[in-house]
Automatic annotation (TrEMBL):
Protein family per UniProt: Belongs to the class-I pyridine nucleotide-disulfide oxidoreductase family.
Cofactor info, note text: Binds 1 FAD per subunit.
GO biological process, one term: 2-oxoglutarate metabolic process
Domain Pyridine nucleotide-disulphide oxidoreductase dimerisation: 372-477
A single MF term (Gene Ontology): dihydrolipoyl dehydrogenase (NADH) activity
Keywords, sorted A to Z: FAD, Flavoprotein, NAD, Nucleotide-binding
Name used for this protein in its record: Oxidoreductase
Disulphide connectivity of cysteines: C55-C60
Domain of life: Bacteria
Annotated FAD binding sites: K64, T157, G158, S159, D324
UniProt domain FAD/NAD(P)-binding: residue ranges: 18-333
């Protein structure tokens, strides 16, 4: 896409040696390259699509650019006086133009120039491992480069959407997350399959833009969060006009006319007709054609890593896997954290310095296991960090949960008339620290970092109560949660 506009920075030579080779230039690959360069290492980065990756052009950035107008209008309607000013519908052309601005028209020149500015050599084409520390890059025109890494190859190729193997799926030509964020026309009726983060955000987005959305989920929405999160998001979607159906699966699809509607056959015997159907039913690693078999790994597999993101089962300690491909947390911010940590570890190993890979060490991705934050920009928003109550109990912790509804916080009431939401803390009773926190309500994404600091820092609750929440803000919920815990 826009290949003629991309800034090509190939090297002229067919063979070259670098300290580090990074496969994939999304935010994860860029962070790895940046930290390796900061350590004084030479770096080559290889990209087969757009510099900036899935996040920049088809996921985080465009989805949030599209969602923000939807949520802004919903927020205004929750405040008397502002509500009366909202008299029309969203201008979808302007909403799509806003998205186009943030994805720079799917032109990656700026991000390619940034790589160049930090001293990273960009090779465009398809990269494949060719044995230890070797990478071949095949360009669109068939030209090939052979690159060799002195110290490390970092795989940051990301993931792809998974489509279920059901009759008629090819005929239906379903949307994936890419269609959900790069489309510029609103379908009259949109069926979305999947109740995870992508499914609920896309349902919020397209219902807000004027589509009649039906969301189908096999189980509760947001099943990896506390149960009340999915319940409140489902309630918000229903009140916005979406048809939310839980416990329903699609058994077949039928679309005889490519320009006509698609019929979904459901496992309960019913049928549903839509103008478009979107699947948000999971992801698979983009490792199927990157030469893993040449280093003894199975093509298409998730890559197991240690705390420094070094791939296990590969001799020589040179292959790293960052972001989605290691399956720790398929979130851009978590992948960037891994990349910063691994880039520093690569630099330390290359210089012969000690590697601090113990818990919470400079070269350890400890937060992957204890303090992963995530936000879904639905209406209401759902945000969480750390372990849910079920996960904590399953891990053997002795825990207590503390729940408080936001309507008890005066700051929340001033933020939105009839503010509705809930917060939960998961407390480790033996150490009296937080193992997890969940917030659901308008604007709660801005509460999450305080919870992340508390969980990652293992701040004792006795100390945490001295972190005073400003009055009157939504963050007063912290005071209420901690008081509820003290009172038992």
């Amino acid at each position: 896409m826009l290949r003629e506009a991309m800034n090509e920075t190939h090297q002229n030579q067919q063979d070259a040696t670098y300290d580090v080779i990074v496969l994939g230039t999304g935010p994860v690959g860029q962070n790895a390259a940046d930290h390796a360069r900061a350590a004084g290492l030479t770096v080559a980065a290889v990209e087969r699509e757009l510099v900036g990756g899935e996040c920049s052009y088809w996921a985080c950035v465009p989805s949030k650019a599209l969602l923000r107008p939807v949520i802004a209008v919903a927020d205004a309607r929750r405040v008397d006086g502002a509500r009366q000013a909202v008299t029309g519908l969203l201008d979808t052309a302007r909403v799509f133009a806003r998205r186009d601005h943030y994805v720079t028209g799917w032109n990656d020149t700026g991000q390619a120039e940034w790589l160049k500015s930090i001293g990273v050599d960009l090779f465009r084409g398809h990269a494949r491992l060719d044995g230890p520390r070797r990478v071949t890059v095949t360009r669109d025109d068939g030209a090939r480069h052979t690159l060799t890494a002195r110290h490390a190859v970092a795989v940051a190729t990301g993931s792809r959407p998974v489509l279920p193997d059901i009759p008629g799926i090819e005929e239906a030509r379903p949307w994936t997350n890419r269609h959900g964020t790069d489309a510029s026309a609103v379908p009259g009726r949109l069926a979305i399959i999947g109740g995870g983060g992508v499914g609920v955000e896309m349902a919020t987005l397209w219902q807000g833009l004027g589509s009649r959305v039906t969301l189908l989920a096999r189980r509760a929405l947001l099943p990896r969060m506390e149960p009340f999160a999915g319940d409140l998001v489902a309630r918000g979607l229903t009140e916005a006009g979406a048809d939310v159906r839980i416990g329903v699966q699609v058994s077949a699809l039928h679309r005889p006319d490519p320009a006509g509607p698609v019929t979904l056959s459901l496992d309960d015997g019913g049928e549903l007709e839509a103008d478009e159907v979107m699947f948000a039913t999971g992801r698979a690693p983009l490792t199927d054609d990157i030469g893993l078999e040449t280093v003894g790994l199975a093509p298409g597999s998730w890559l197991d890593v240690d705390t420094t993101c070094l791939v296990t089962g590969v001799e020589g300690g040179w292959l790293y896997a960052l972001g989605d491909v290691n399956h720790h947390a398929l979130l851009t911010h978590q992948g960037k954290y891994q990349a910063r940590t691994a880039g520093d570890a690569i630099g330390a190993r290359a210089a012969g310095r000690p590697v601090d890979d113990g818990p919470w060490g400079d070269h350890a991705t400890t937060a992957d296991r204890h303090a992963v934050p995530q936000v879904f920009f639905t209406d209401p928003e759902a945000a969480a960090v750390g372990l849910s109550a079920e996960e904590a109990s399953r891990a053997g912790h002795r825990v207590r949960t503390v729940d408080v509804d936001f309507d008890a916080a005066q700051g929340a009431g001033l933020y939105a008339d009839g503010y509705r939401g809930r917060a939960r803390l998961v407390v480790d009773l033996d150490r009296e620290i937080l193992l997890g926190a969940t917030f659901v309500g308008p604007g709660v994404s801005e509460l999450l970092h305080s919870a992340t600091v508390a969980v990652a820092g293992e701040v004792p609750l006795k100390r945490l109560r001295h972190a005073i929440a400003c009055f009157p803000t939504v963050s007063e919920i912290w005071l209420l949660l901690l008081e509820a815990y003290r009172r038992g």
